[in-house]
Amino acid sequence: MNQSKKIYFASDVHLGAPALKHNHERELLFVNWLHQIKQDAAMIFLLGDIFDFWFEYRKVAPQGFVRVLGAIAGICDSGIPVHFFTGNHDIWVFDYLPRETGMIIHHEPFETELFGKKFFLAHGDDLGKTDKKYQLMSRFFHNKFAQWAFAKIHPDLSFRLAHYWSKNNRLIKGVAGVGFLGEESEHQIIFARKLLKVKHFDYFIFGHRHIDLDFQLAENSKVIILGDWFKECTYGVYDGKTFLLEKIINETLTKSK
Predict the structure, then answer these.
(1) Tens digit of pLDDT for each residue in 179-219?
(2) Fewer CB within 10 Å: N-end or C-end of the chain?
(3) Fold of the domain spanning 6-255
(4) What angle is formed at CA 15 by the lines to CA 85 and CA 54, rounded to 5 degrees?
């Protein structure tokens, strides 16, 4: 990997979210960011909930997002790997996105080495959680029969149901994005600390929580939570020496919080 290049990370853009304002402006901002970072990107990681809802029927895919998909396809075509992690809002990615854009899809956490450092990457919605209701719901959404049954519903109705669920989802409404809960209460930190006892990682990179956090877990290990793109518009960048959380200042999106 070219050491003069950088590795970029983003999550929780929630494109098309019915509960959020300025979806078009947020999409344009995200596309502009993609065009900018491709100038020096060695690799790009999109860690889940890039779309607020995504479900691929065998012959039907969600409308919209043409600019985003085109930008990503162009980056992949140029030889820059783009890794896409399914989140709890866009878990139903099957073969359309990787086939049409060239992205590498991850349905599970991913362990890798980047510039000589060990990374643990995941959306992080169910890591370390003890909430049985959430675990049951997550298993249902990942169930092959449930996916098959949902695919039998006409897209006009299924997407309406999904957008209704999203609009009333506690994460988008802000209940789960209430700020840093403390290291003893943040599930992702609890998970990372437990895993670190048996296997070393220099960086644990997560999305989902809608907070931007750079937490020193141990002397040589950090937990990074990437934030989102409708409150602070934050992303991560790693140059082989330092991991930074950067922020895009956008007055339109800031005023819409």
Answers:
(1) 888 889 899 999 999 999 999 999 999 999 999 999 999 99
(2) C
(3) Purple Acid Phosphatase; chain A, domain 2 (3.60.21)
(4) 55
Domain ranges of the chain: 6-255
Residues 31-82: tens digit of each pLDDT: 999 999 999 999 999 999 999 877 777 777 777 789 999 999 999 999 999 9
